[in-house]
Design brief:
Residues 496-890 form the USP domain. The protein is of the alpha+beta class. Strands 36, 41, 42, 43, 44, 45, 46, 47 and 48 form a 9-stranded mixed sheet that branches. Strands 19, 20, 21, 22, 23 and 24 form a 6-stranded antiparallel sheet that branches. The longest helix is centred in the middle third of the chain and has 23 residues, at 589-611. The model is unreliable at 1-53, 455-481, 501-512, 613-626, 744-769 and 1158-1201 (pLDDT under 50).
Length: 1201
């Protein structure tokens, strides 16, 4: 509502407008009127005197209620689902009243300072709009969501366009569209005239009322301005729409001020022009259509006068009545959905209900309102707790799936089995055994099927995972699951018939590796490119490049996993698992991830070491010229010394990329982590005497290991594989907690409750805000390592307050900060899982968000959540077991050159040999690009891909008949085609690669892909066969250059190919010819409708599909110039959908019906677009300039396919 037009002179309200009504407002003269006292006011409604008779069809005052004394009412709204009236005031407080008697239902604070601008009821709650805040609360006052806007916003109105979409507008020059499901801003529409304070909707337009006095009509789909009425010269106070009529009221500019217009402006929406204004006898401030038998208008003034009239007739002074307001001004007005009730809110906090009948209803079909249950304590029977046989079911308890107040947190409780009561001795005495079954008469000492609730001693030896809990929490899921915090539980994708396409990854974010946040590794693998078909370094670099490009979109490592599965060493080490192994928990994931850690570092070290040399772009202070950057980062030289008992000493030098922790036999002693780390690095062990195969005798001795140099990244495998190691971690964490808290660790000493509470107080000198931060922590966030001049290793824990001593050499002292921890989550219900805590550094936040910031994150598959740094080092050995630790040297990035140079060159697009042995030049279906045809930024490229199935879909049929997808089908790309999009050879393919695969194909999908058995086999294929990596690099080069891909359904193509393409480089014809919230249209139907082409007859052909997509894009540019969507193009789309519905979206037979569109765009003709003769002759000349080969006449582009 626009309050700028309020007349300030009305605030005094000294002389009444209706002197005859003045005695009624005086509480001394009218005993039926309750006087409002700010110190104490009755919360019940103020009834109307019984003498008032409500005439049917005539509105009269029915009831009055107080919202909040002295605080003006700012908004009122009749609930659209229940018999309720909602009121919001200038203090940000909301109150609801039930039924025509206005019984107070709920009352709560919505905003602490701002007034409530508008209220809108939904099925599950109520929306409240304030200046910079949109809050959704239940009808009882519980917050469902709270959406904060920018502080510069000044919102005044909201409009619910459908069940899930909301428009919010105010004094700024834009309108926000908010999705109520995701609580996110989906669109921001710019408006030419700022200051929208009122919004209405009809079946044709959005109507926006502006503070300048204008009313704009906007399109329902694009929110574009269609028409505008300049209603009032000063300001607009209210308007309403019904049928073909728009009626407004407002103020005019007169004598350097605003004066209320006594004329209502009436507009005919059929002719879009003004009709005769309607003169009224009051100063209109509110107006509403009340369509019952006629289109009546209710016109309300600020001072409480109300007049009814027809918008096309004359106003009658006899139709004026007065609202007996407590305050001087009417602030709000609303009409119920049934048109039977009117609500007025005044400036003193009162709300007045007017109705046309005593049995008024606010809605035609309201649902029942939930009320608080009455107290039932007095009616419950007495329960004697001393009687064991008294059933507890005598006390009724509501059935609920929520947590109860009596349910203890999982951290403070443990499930315990109830021991079975001992068998009655009388039964044992009289029992007769027949085989292994005993029979005895019932002694009748206990009631049948009843067991006394006796609490026995706790039995420590029991299985936690097999107990049935007494709490309602555990009845939903297994009780042991609640030992694992929710964010650490295994997350699963709920597949549908669309596979991954309709899974909302926005709630989770993308999957990342620990290595991605090591900047030298990230830069190294992106600079790496070799000729090996399956190289983990290359695939990791391509994956990291996708992560750099993505803006919150999910990235999948399918190509990386494909290369990983082909490496023999991975299979030999048992790193490749079947899905059943993981689900059933047959594999030890903690041991598996440590083996994977060792394997991936070794593999990357070998692959990058083979390529480095001339292409080295990193500089290091140590390491030989042949060493890789992986070696410089992780590797350190070790000196292994073997001292035999006979006195012979053998020294051998080796290198290692990681260390494995070695634990002492005794757990009673107090160890620091630095001591165990030093013991593991400088390992000393005794060897037993042995006899060799040749008969020689080897004396036992001592083997020691010393370190020669320190690595830049310290990788530690924790090797917690048994209960012995787990008990060691648990014991050391408890002792470390005592030491941090300042307690003396003495056996048998009890710690008082007061000492525990003092841990968090600042007076004790400890920086731990709670005891929880002390629990289960043993490893430090930083360690200090130093090699002395005698090559002895010194390791110690390092805290933030520590400083280097003057004797320490900064070059020889390494300070390592904890960068990542990988933990194994023990969960027998799901088989367990692996999660990681990673400290994301400043370089990532600077690159992605432009801020310098460090933050710890929890990575649980595709679920990512920020956590506190203490949580990264807390390990509860009952469910959270450490597996890998990463420590990185401080200022690591300054040592390396972190420049990424794109290793993919234009030569990847030139001609290459086929893997197929039988492929001939006459079988070539494409002509590679020449040097003068290299693509530039913005060039069009038609793209299409075909796929085969590697694994069938796994699904189950539920009891209700619905289908649930357990695992979607696994697709693999089999053919990729790229077509020139401009130039003299427009429409001629320059890439048509068939992808060789070593994996077994279960379905070639020939009907949809055109791929036949044998096409992907290098021994018998006649196609141009290449590796996936080769074709992938071609597409990556095109993406890096900046070309725009044109195709149909490219989203799935890029997902299966495993490519991340910026959205501004994708032109998808499936969306160009699409109306929102309607079905997607196939390429075959679009080609028939717009191009009069019959494609995809028996099978699909990617060249034909890519070329057709290009033609459709040309047709789109022809129909919609400059990419806009005028009314003419919308009519074309509507005709397309109408034609599709009539034909059931099937292309008719050739002779049955012709296409409605025959004209081909931009010089394309049907013969030229479909025939290969004309194009084939044009390509002969190109064949002599160094292309793959000449295409014979008459055979066309697809000859030999």
């Amino acid at each position: 509502m626009n309050f700028e037009g309020l007349n300030p002179s009305l605030a005094e309200f000294a002389p009444p407008l209706h002197p005859a009504l003045e005695p009624v407002l005086d509480p001394h003269l009218n005993p039926n009127l309750v006087e409002l006292d700010p110190e104490g006011v009755s919360l019940e409604g103020l009834p109307v005197p019984e003498s008032v008779h409500l005439l049917e069809g005539m509105y009269s005052e029915l009831h009055t209620a107080v919202s909040e004394v002295g605080v003006p009412v700012a908004a009122s709204h009749f609930d659209l689902h229940e018999e309720m009236l909602w009121v919001g005031n200038h203090g940000g407080h909301a109150t609801s009243f039930f039924g025509p008697t206005l019984e107070r239902y709920s009352s709560f604070q919505v905003n602490s300072s701002d007034d409530i601008r508008q209220i809108q009821s939904l099925e599950n709650g109520v929306l409240f709009l304030t200046k910079t805040n949109l809050k959704y609360l239940s009808r009882g006052g519980l917050i469902i969501f709270d959406y904060l806007m920018d502080e510069s916003e000044d919102m005044h109105s909201l409009l619910l366009t459908d069940n899930n979409t909301l428009l919010v507008a105010g004094l700024q020059n834009h309108v926000l569209e908010i999705d109520l499901n995701t609580v996110q801003e989906t669109q921001k529409y710019t408006v030419e005239v700022p200051g929208i304070t009122i919004m209405r909707q009809s079946n044709r337009f959005f109507f926006c009322g502006h503070t300048s006095g204008k009313v704009s009509l906007r399109d329902l789909r694009s929110f574009a301005a269609e028409h505008e009425f300049d209603a009032h010269s000063g300001s607009l106070s209210d308007f309403d729409v019904h049928g073909n009529l728009l009626v407004t009221c407002g103020f005019s500019s007169r004598m350097n001020g605003l004066a209320c217009d006594r004329f209502l402006k009436v507009y005919d929406l059929r002719m879009m022009r003004a009709t005769t204004p309607l003169q009224v006898h009051i100063d209109p401030f509110f107006l509403r259509f009340i369509p019952t038998y006629t289109s009546r208008l209710a016109i309300i003034s600020q001072t409480g006068q109300c007049q009814f009239c027809e918008p096309t007739g004359l106003a009658n002074p006899a139709d004026i009545f007065h609202v007996n307001t407590v305050g001087p001004l009417i602030m709000t007005f609303d009409v119920s959905a049934s048109k039977q009730a009117l609500a007025f809110g005044d400036s003193e906090g009162c709300v007045h209900l007017w109705a046309d009948s005593p049995e008024v209803t606010f809605n035609a079909y309201s649902r029942e309102t939930d009320f608080a249950l009455p107290c039932m304590v007095d009616t419950l029977p007495h329960l004697d707790w001393n009687q064991d046989l008294v059933p507890l079911s005598l006390i009724p308890v509501p059935l609920t799936s929520d947590a109860l107040l009596s349910d203890w947190p999982a951290a403070n409780s443990a499930p315990a089995p109830r021991r079975a009561p001992p068998v009655d001795p009388e039964i044992l005495r009289t029992m007769k055994k027949v085989g292994f079954i005993g029979y005895a008469p019932n002694p009748r000492t206990k009631l049948r099927n009843q067991i006394p609730y006796r609490l026995k001693e706790m039995d420590n030896e029991f299985d936690n995972f097999s107990q049935v809990p007494e709490s309602p929490i555990g009845r939903e899921e297994e009780p042991h699951l609640y030992r694992v915090a929710k964010k650490y539980r295994k997350v699963t994708i709920k597949y549908s018939k669309l596979g991954l396409e309709d899974f909302d990854f926005k709630h989770y974010n993308k999957t990342l590796f620990v290595l991605y946040f090591l900047e030298p590794v990230r830069c190294l693998v992106q600079n790496h490119l070799c000729q090996k078909e399956f190289c983990l370094g290359c695939e990791l670099g391509l994956l990291f490049h996708m992560l750099d490009l993505s803006r919150g979109d999910p990235c999948q490592g399918s190509n990386f996993l494909r290369a990983f599965r082909t490496i023999p060493e991975a299979s030999a080490l048992g790193l490749i698992l079947a899905d059943s192994d993981e689900a059933t928990g047959k594999v030890n994931l903690g041991r598996l991830i440590q083996s994977w850690n060792r394997f991936i570092l070794t593999q990357l070290h070998q692959e990058t070491q083979e390529q480095e040399g001339p292409q080295r772009c990193f500089s290091s202070s140590f390491g030989s010229s042949g060493d890789s950057v992986i070696g410089q980062l992780f590797s350190c030289e070790m000196e292994n010394c073997s001292m035999c008992r006979c006195g012979k000493e053998t020294v051998r030098v080796s290198s290692t990329l990681l260390f494995t922790l070695s634990y002492p036999d005794s757990t009673a002693k107090d160890y620091e982590f630095a001591q165990i780390l030093k013991r593991s690095i400088c390992l000393e062990q005794n060897t037993q005497p042995t006899v060799s195969l040749g008969g020689g005798h080897r004396h036992g001795g001592v083997q020691t290991r010393n370190i020669r140099c320190l690595p830049d990244v310290l990788v530690i495998n924790c090797e917690v594989n048994s209960s012995k190691e787990a008990d060691f971690w648990k014991t050391q964490a408890e002792k470390a907690m005592m030491k941090r808290g300042g307690f003396d660790i003495t056996k048998g000493k009890e710690i008082s409750l007061g000492e525990w509470k003092d841990l968090g107080s600042p007076d004790t000198g400890h920086s731990y805000p709670s005891v929880e931060e002390l629990k289960n922590i043993w490893i430090p966030h930083a360690i200090k390592m130093r090699l002395t001049k005698s090559k002895e290793l010194d390791v110690s824990n390092w805290s933030e307050s520590d400083e280097l001593s003057p004797t320490d050499d900064p070059e020889s002292v390494y300070i390592y900060d904890l960068m990542a921890t990988v933990v194994h989550i023990l969960d027998s219900r799901t088989g367990g899982s692996l999660v990681g805590h990673i400290k994301v550094g400043e370089t990532y936040h600077q690159r992605k968000e432009g801020v310098t910031h460090q933050q710890w994150y929890l990575f649980n598959d595709f679920l990512i959540e920020p956590v506190d740094k203490c949580e990264a080092v807390q390990f509860d050995m009952s469910w959270k077991v450490p597996a890998i630790l990463y420590y990185a040297r401080r200022n690591l990035n300054a040592k390396y050159n972190l420049v990424i140079k794109n290793p993919i060159e234009a030569s990847v697009l030139l001609a290459e040999a086929s893997l197929a042995r039988k492929q001939r030049k006459c079988h070539a279906t494409f002509i590679p690009l020449m040097l003068n045809e290299m693509p530039q930024a913005g060039d069009l490229v038609g793209l299409d891909a075909e796929f085969v199935t590697l694994n069938e879909e796994e699904a189950e049929l539920r009891s209700d008949g619905t289908k649930s997808t357990i695992k979607p089908s696994q697709m693999s790309v089999a053919r990729i085609t790229c077509v020139r999009g401009q130039g003299p050879n427009e429409g001629v393919p320059f890439i048509d690669d068939y992808i060789s695969t070593q994996e077994q194909v279960v379905d070639y999908l020939t009907q949809y892909s055109g791929i036949k058995p044998g096409d992907l086999d290098a021994k018998i294929s006649s196609k141009h066969l290449t590796t996936l990596k080769s074709t992938y690099l071609k597409l990556r080069f095109l993406i890096d250059v900046g070309v725009k891909f044109v195709g149909h359904g490219l989203q799935k193509d890029f997902r299966v190919i495993n490519l991340m393409v910026p959205k501004d480089q994708v032109i998808d014809t499936v969306y160009l010819f699409h109306i929102p919230r309607k079905r997607m249209i196939s390429l075959r139907f679009l080609a028939w409708y717009f191009l009069d082409l019959k494609i995809q007859g028996e099978t699909h052909d990617s060249i034909e599909d890519a070329r057709t997509a290009l033609q459709l894009y040309r047709k789109y540019l022809e129909l919609s110039p400059q990419g806009s969507e005028p009314e003419e193009f919308r009519k074309v789309l509507k005709g397309l959908y109408e034609k599709g519905r009539k034909l059931d979206w099937k292309v008719p037979e050739p002779d049955s019906q012709s296409s409605p569109k025959r004209k081909m765009p931009l010089g394309w003709t049907r013969d030229e677009g479909a025939s290969g003769e004309a194009m084939g002759s044009a390509l002969e000349a190109k064949g002599s300039t160094g292309a793959v080969g000449r295409i014979p006449e008459g055979r066309g582009l697809c000859g030999g396919v």
